[in-house]
Design goal:
- By secondary structure, the protein is mainly α.
- It has one helix and no strands.
- The chain is rod-shaped, with a radius of gyration of 68 Å.
Length: 170
């Protein structure tokens, strides 16, 4: 009996051990299945977040490239404007000098104009005076011509008249 009891107990013991091992495997399987389900859910959440981050990253990379292109374009434009500014500054300085020279020339010409105007006014006054003198002299000439003509008439009368009648000619 002892081998039967012992054999039964060993068998029971082995059966119990197998059941315990199976329960352990079942528990571990349920635990790992639950844990795997949670890990799988977290993986899916992280995968979705990673996809959103990748989309944001791509969008930001595109925006960065566009901003870099715009910045390079702006930098090129700034260089162009710097060169243009330098040219226009030089041109402006030249124009300022030309304007100052022109203003000085204008002032000089204006002063000359005033001098010439005074000279012209003096010349006109002199011309008017000379014209008056000419008019006066012409009147004297006419008067003298009239006197000459009168004298000629008198001479002609005296020549053609007898000496006794000459008083009529005077």
């Amino acid at each position: 009996m002892s081998s039967g009891f012992m054999g039964k107990k060993v068998n029971l013991f082995l059966l119990l051990m197998i059941i315990l091992v199976l329960l352990g495997f079942g528990g571990v399987s349920v635990y790992y299945q639950y844990t795997f389900k949670n890990l799988n859910q977290r993986f899916n959440n992280l995968s979705v977040k990673l996809g959103v981050c990748e989309d944001n990253l791509m969008s930001n990379l595109t925006a960065l490239k566009n901003a870099e292109k715009a910045l390079n374009s702006t930098e090129t434009d700034i260089r162009k404007y710097d060169v243009l500014y330098e040219q226009k500054s030089t041109e402006l300085e030249n124009k300022k000098r030309e304007l100052a020279d022109t203003q000085a020339e204008l002032t000089r010409v204006t002063l000359q104009k005033e001098v010439y105007k005074k000279q012209i006014d003096e010349a006109y006054a002199q011309i008017i005076g000379l014209n008056k003198t000419i008019t006066s002299l012409n009147q004297q000439i006419r008067s003298l011509n009239n006197q000459i003509n009168d004298q000629k008439d008198t001479i002609a009368c005296l020549k053609n008249t007898d000496d006794s009648d000459e008083f009529e000619c005077i």
